[in-house]
Structures are given as C-alpha cells and as structure tokens.
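Suppose a colleague, Dr. K., hands you the sequence of a protein chain of 516 amino acids and asks what its three-dimensional shape might be. Before reaching for any lab equipment, you can write down a predicted structure in token form. Begin with the sequence itself:
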Amino acid sequence: MKCVFLSSRSCTVLLDAEGDYYAKAPRRLFLNGEELPVENRSVFSLFGLWPDTAYTLEAYLGDEKESEITFRTEKEFCTLNVKRFGAEGDGEKDDTNPIQAAILSCPPGGRVLIPAGDYKTGPLFLKSHISLEFKPGARLALKTDRTEFPILPGMTRTTDEEGEYLLSSWEGNPLDAFASALTGIGVEDVKLIGPGVVDGCAPVGDWWVNPKIKKGAYRPRLFYLKDCKDITVQGLTFRNSPAWNLHPTFSENLSFLNVRVEAPAVSPNTDGFDPESCKHIRMFGTKFSVGDDCIAIKAGKIYMGMKYHVPCQDIEIAWCCMLDGHGGVTVGSEMAGGVHNVRVHHCYMRGNDRGLRIKTRRGRGKYAVIDDILFDHVRMEGVKAPLVVNAMYYCDPDGKTDYVQSREKQPVDDTTPTVGSIRFEHVNATGCEACVGYILGLPERPVKEILLKDCEFSFHPDGKFMVPAMANGVEACQRRGLIARFVDSISLTNVSMEGVEGEELDFQDCGQVENR
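The predicted structure, expressed as tokens, is then:
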C-alpha cells in the first residue's frame, strides 16, 4: 500500500500494485481505527479529511492485516464557499459569475468549495495555487447555448509580426474553439478534488448535431489546459462532453487519479483523455466509457510538429479501466511532434473495437517519431482486435489518397513519420473476434520493432468480421492470428493463440522474425 497523492482534504492510495483496475482481492480498510467500506479497486481515494491532520490507514485481507501507512494532510489557508458569493445550485440560476468570483478571489493555499447542488454555468477559468473541491452531490451543468461561450482564438500574431500566441487546439491544429467547462491557461499548482460531477449536457444541446461542422468555433471540451504545470484532478466524474473530455496541451506534471469519464457509445469524438505535447503525466485508477478512443496520446499535426516539435512523453497509465470506445489506449494519429516513453500497465479493457492502438500516416513529418512504447500486464475481454499498429491511417481530407495509402515505396522526406519500438508484454485477451493483431508499416520506412512476450489470446466462437486497421485495402477478418506488413523486426516469446483459423502468423515484407 502506497500513498500517491495528498491534498488538504483528500488522499489517493495504491492498494494493490499487482491488480488491474480491480484489486486481486477486496480489502477491509480502517482509517484511524474506523472501518471504511470494503474496497475492490487497486487505486482508491479518501475524501472529507481535515487539513494538517495525521492519519493511519490499515488494510486487511480477510482478518489478517496486510499493510499500514501513515500520512499527514496538507495545510489549508482558508475555504471560500461559492454559495457565499451568490451561487444557488438550483439548476435554474446562472451560477457562472459567483463561482468565477470565488475562484479569482481565492488566495494561494486556499480552497474553493462547491457544496451539493446543480450549478448551471458557462466555462470557468482556473487560477494558480488553489484547490477547487466538489462535494458529493455537486454537479456543474454546462450551458448549451454556444452564443454564451467565449471563444479561445487558435492563433494570434505577436505585435512584432514574427511570432504567434497559441490558445486553442482542435484536432492537432491551432484553431478557434469554444472555452471548456474548466479551462486553465498558464496556471500551476491547481488541485481539482471530487467526488462531484462536471456535466457537458451535450445531449440537451446541439453539440452532437452535425458535429464536424464549425459553428462559430469548434466544440468545447470539459477540461482544457494550455501551458500549465503541476495540476491534479482527483475523483471527479466528467460526463456528456460536447467533444473530447480531458485535453491538456503543452503542459507538464499532470496527475489524473480515480477519475470517471462517461459518454454514450454513439457520441461523436468524445475521447476520454487526449494529452497533446505534454510530459510527465500520471493516469491512475480511472474508468472510461466513451464514444471514441478512451485515451489518445497526441502531439499535433504537421504545422505544430514542424514548428514546435514538442513530443508527448514520459506518460504512465496504470490500474485503469477502458470500456467500449473505438480504442482502449491509442497513440496518434495527430502526433507530428512525436510520442516517446509511454508505459501502459495493469489495465483492464472490455468491449473496445481495438485495444492497444498506434495510428500515424504519411504527412505527419520527420519529428513524428513514435518510440519506446510499452504495453504490459493488460487484461482484455471482448476486444475485437487487441493489437493494431497502423502507419496508413486514413484520417484527414486526403486520408484515402494514393499519397497516404500507396503500398509502393514513396520518397523519404520531411513528411515521413517513424514508428520505432512497440512492445506488448503480459497481454491476456479473451473473446477476440477479428484478429490477434494487425501491423501495417510504410514500405519506405517499416515499423522498426514489434515485440510480443508472455501473451495469451483466445477467440469468441461467434465473433464477427471486422476491419482491424483503418487503411485502404485492409479486409475484414475473423479469428485471424497476427498479421504484419512492412516491419523490420518481429519477436514473439511465449505467445499463445487459441481458436485461430488458418496460420497464426501472416507476415509479408517483413525482416527478421523470431518465434520462441
């Protein structure tokens, strides 16, 4: 048992490092001698603690004490209750100004408290060195009239006409977008504490009607950061976002702990978590159920990659749960600045179209290097295609042209991306349908290394046909093994595939192959 985060009023604990989202066995917990509800998750949070107070947490397996930790909560300068600023929380009155006033008035080390209630608000802007706490039953309900939303300009030229100031990002480009429910611009040392709800109310408005059409600006997210650092989100639920849910850009030292992200399976582009050109990120104990990729790690399209070449790097995603969604954990496809050093481990996925997924394409650029990606100890149930690496992903208006999709070698130039080392270890997938995996590199720049070690795959007997990789010429398949095209090196160690029809390994235009 290990404490991974402390605030003045809360604590997050790693209870079972060997579990996935769910602990291997439930624990009985005692806080300062008082028994808590039985906990079956590997990572959990305590709320309602007192500032600057010592606590002892004990964990029992049955009647036997397993472990114990002691900790002291942080100090707190003061608490500002939004109701004292005029917020009603009745679901009718517009509470934007009272809550924003409380945030702006909060001193360093202070807490803004949102009690139980329904708070109808527009976008709120965060401030450095404060905590914003949502008590149980507190819900921010985002307004649905886009004419009442401020717009964040994507790009503003500096007065010397040589530079630029970027505020907003939309699918990898600096484009105008509506401000998000919670927005941070250049802030640091901010804690957002649950267990309340941030509700985008998208089904009530028209955000999901013709969603690809820009109407004044692009759709808002629920949580957006630009140039921020030392931000923690703990225990909040994000629901019904107009677009992506959690979207930090050019930010660092971010923690997301015991968060829930929810959207209908048919909702458009409601990605759960899309860090873009960020570094030093922890995503622990979070549960996703969305209409697109649960997690998509990004680094901009070619303009951003060639001008700034800021990668997304040093990311740990662990003890999380990914339900439904097009992909469990995805890298790309907007990754022109590169993605490096990603560790996804001890996660559980169920019902996704694709589990562990790499997406790129010609045109992402020379800084678009995906390398040092490890997926380890991932358990899947009913994931149709567990492993997909696709360097011909047919996104963007030109995505299905010969330039992107040609299987003939193209010139290697400043637009050519690179896929380096991708490792899959201790992946256990049951109920697969399409194939174990589909690996598609570029003929002019093959995927450098694919490694599978200690992995088990088995198929649903009634699994349906599905196209595993979104690229021209990829046929729908059913109960296929590992398919690979244009890969320099493939290594398989202790890999089993149960229920495959035909050859387990279908490799073409690949280099060195080891199967032990």
